[in-house]
Design brief:
Layout (H helix, E strand, L loop, with lengths): L1 E4 L4 E5 L6 H17 L4 E6 L3 E6 L11 H18 L1 H8 L14 E8 L7 H8 L3 H9 L3 E6 L6 E4 L14 E4 L3 E5 L2 E4 L4 E3 L2 E5 L20 E6 L2 H6 L2
Parallel strand pairs: 5-13
Antiparallel strand pairs: 1-2, 2-4, 3-4, 5-12, 6-7, 6-13, 7-10, 8-11, 9-10, 9-12
Length: 244
């Protein structure tokens, strides 16, 4: 683990260099330990691909023996040591698939219904053509995988999902759309994701879900979180229209 400041009120703990399940295990373990710490100086804990960013309260000078940065680094380091103490057990529990460890047993499996193609997925045929596959094959490949949420960002609740079949890896659009409808399911490079709210976007749109991924009236407002598992279920236009 390496620590580095992010501005004057956050520290970034880097736990790996590659986006993989083992790094995700490290990220989730440290984030969980920090959440359990319940330190009053911690404002927020944000896990991502290979990092955990900790936002902290700046204590006025003279009110603490350590600088705010040194203090938060000590807290993060202590939590990491607690994780390291269990690391052999975590690895043994993980076996060849780290996502099956005790740390991941609470990882939710979220089913997201998707209407592929047509007005819901205007780029589906283009993706099929570029990949040399039939449209039905694209839908099958995209919906048969269990994805893992590796990061949340870009817009509130936007999940970056890892696990996309290599045959569906696609470059982003040369010209981004000014407005992408909420619920749109897209492909960007090696990842797939869902636009929780209407926004600009440059990913290849292959479908749309009627399920709401972000609602400010809910607690928490985002449906998906780092570490969650996601599966897409193809639905018809009729089912999409009748969803409530």
């Amino acid at each position: 683990m390496t620590l580095a400041p992010l501005g004057d009120s956050a520290v970034v703990a880097t736990l790996g260099r590659t986006i993989d399940e083992l790094t995700l295990l490290r990220v989730r373990s440290l984030a969980a330990a920090l959440e359990l710490e319940k330190s009053p100086v911690i404002i927020d804990v944000v896990p991502a691909y290979t990092t955990v960013t900790v936002f902290y309260e700046i204590v006025p000078a003279g009110m603490a023996a350590q600088s705010p940065y040194d203090r938060i680094c000590s807290i993060v380091t202590d939590c990491w040591h607690k994780v390291e103490d269990r690391w052999p057990d975590l690895l043994r529990e993980a076996g060849e698939n780290p996502t099956q460890s005790a740390t991941h047993q609470d990882a939710a499996v979220i089913e997201i219904p998707v209407c592929y193609g047509g007005e819901c997925g205007p780029d589906l045929e283009e993706v099929a053509h570029a990949s040399g596959l039939a449209v039905d094959e694209v839908v099958s490949l995209h919906s048969r995988v269990t994805y893992h949420v590796h990061a949340i960002g870009f817009t509130p609740g936007f999940p970056y999902l890892a696990g996309l079949d290599e045959k569906l890896h696609m470059p982003r659009r040369a010209t981004p759309r000014v407005s992408v409808p909420a619920g749109s399911v897209g492909i960007g490079g090696k990842q797939t994701g869902v636009y929780p709210v209407s926004s600009p976007g440059g990913w290849q749109l292959i479908g749309r879900t009627p399920r709401r991924l972000f609602n400010v009236e809910h607690r928490p407002p985002a449906l998906l979180h780092v570490g969650d598992r996601v599966r897409f279920r193809p639905i018809s236009e009729q089912e999409f229209g009748s969803w409530s």
